[in-house]
Design goal:
This is Methyltransferase domain-containing protein. By secondary structure, this protein is α/β, with parallel strands linked by helices. It has two domains: 207 residues, Rossmann fold, CATH 3.40.50; 119 residues, 3-Layer(aba) Sandwich (Rossmann fold). Helix content is 31%, strand content 20%.
């Protein structure tokens, strides 16, 4: 008999081409998490795709698979980084660190892949440091350009990297925040980095740590836009194939627990591998990241969380309590669609991003309003969808407490605060 956590799948690993047969978590079907619905299209229906994450038993890379091409996903994108105050502060601190600790100065050339609306490069610009943003989404790239951030609107890979290298020059620093998970052709992407990076250049990348995803039950961070979910072991092995080494790593609180890796060529002796890299690899090995059985218990934990959350919401609705949402993040749409939460539980949600206001969440069709809507309706509970920003959000709308309102935080386990 086949193990319950193992299913047959014709997909191939996007890294090593091995067959993907081992389930990490099956979240059913869902529309693209950033495919917000315009009012005039409310009755047109949406395409749902399998949201089934597998783990490769050869390279241990957790992945969803490429059900939708990145060009379709990012043709019209609604995520703008500048609407999170804490994320802007995070970006500013990063620029100061690279300036003070790594000698990035006015003689350097900095390239950010997936530069979004210029949220980070604007701080390098203020320092007078030459910059270039690379952003695939046309509507987002336009906002960056309007801010005066030099931006190329294209998908990054080996072919486009060659064009950029000819048009500009080799980069002293290449950075990417939450981009490595978004490129299905990961080896082509790294080949492009190799072409654009200077001989003594360095790169930094941030991504949610698979360790945190598993230990803190962050299943809602899985969606079609994220093809991969990395441990340090897996991403280090991929870079190593391309003659690159991870020479340092930092643990971050962003997105529920991320890591920032520092990468350079193996031939670059200016940077020796930090003890922190070996320590994190050792922790992952002890946890079982090189044992396929380690990954198989996650699916059941996720099902239990769904049951617990629905029981909580059902109980509140039986008491005639009003519930509204805060935020319209990708993770929230995964959560709502997997749990089957619609307007029978959540009346509406709000978001600071005006590009989302007036639209409806994908799948659940919950309407999105300006945050002022909460003051108008005075709900009993506010369901925080971007739970990684719960402290920032509860501070922003602390007035909810004035009428006795409370907050619901769904991850890692549903709680009322």
């Amino acid at each position: 008999m086949m193990d319950e956590s193992t299913t047959t799948n014709n997909n191939k690993c996007l890294n090593c081409s091995s067959s993907l047969e081992n389930t990490f978590v099956d979240l059913g079907t869902s529309p693209l998490c950033e495919e917000f619905v315009k009012p005039e299209n409310i009755n047109n229906g949406q395409q749902f795709y399998p949201l089934h994450a597998y783990v490769c038993d050869e390279c241990f890379l957790v992945q969803v698979g490429e059900y939708v091409s990145p060009r379709e996903i990012y043709s019209d994108y609604y995520y703008f980084s500048s609407y999170s105050d804490s994320w802007l502060a995070h970006a500013k601190e990063y620029v100061e660190m690279m300036r003070d600790n790594y000698g990035i100065n006015q003689e350097s050339f900095v390239v950010e892949i997936a530069s979004n609306d210029g949220y980070l490069l604007q701080y390098f610009k203020k320092e007078g440091i030459p910059i270039l943003g690379v952003e695939p989404s046309d509507n987002v790239a336009k906002v960056s350009i309007e801010k005066g951030i030099p931006t190329e609107q294209l998908f990054f890979g080996k072919e486009t990297a060659s064009e950029l290298q000819k048009k500009y020059k080799s980069a002293d620093l290449i950075l990417g925040n939450n981009i490595l998970a978004h490129v299905p052709e990961i080896n082509d992407f790294i080949e492009g980095l190799d072409m654009l990076l200077g001989n003594k250049g360095i790169m930094t990348f941030e991504f949610p740590h698979l360790l945190q995803l598993i230990e803190n039950n962050q299943f809602d961070t899985i969606y079609h836009e994220h093809f991969f979910y990395f441990s340090l072991i897996t991403i280090a092995s991929i870079f190593k194939k391309h003659g690159m080494k991870i020479f340092d790593v930092q643990e971050l609180s962003t997105h529920g627990g991320s890591v920032r890796i520092f990468v350079t060529r193996e031939s670059n002796q200016d940077y020796q591998v930090s003890d922190k890299v070996a320590k994190m690899v050792s922790i992952e090995k002890e946890k079982g990241f090189l044992d396929i059985d380690f990954y198989r218990g996650f699916d059941e934990r996720v099902r239990q969380t769904k049951t617990d959350l629905l029981e909580l919401l059902i109980d509140l609705k039986k008491q005639d309590k009003t519930i509204v949402g805060y935020g319209a993040p990708g993770k929230g749409n995964t959560l709502l669609n997997y749990c089957g939460i619609r307007r029978d539980f959540i009346d509406y949600t709000v978001d600071r991003n005006p590009n989302k206001q007036g639209y409806y969440l994908p799948g659940s069709l919950i309407p999105i309003f300006h945050p002022d809507k909460i003051r108008e309706t005075k709900p009993d509970f506010v369901f925080i969808l971007p739970w990684n920003l719960k402290d920032e959000i509860m501070q922003q709308i602390k007035y909810v407490r004035d009428w006795g309102g409370k907050f619901i935080v769904p991850i890692p386990a549903p709680v009322i605060i």
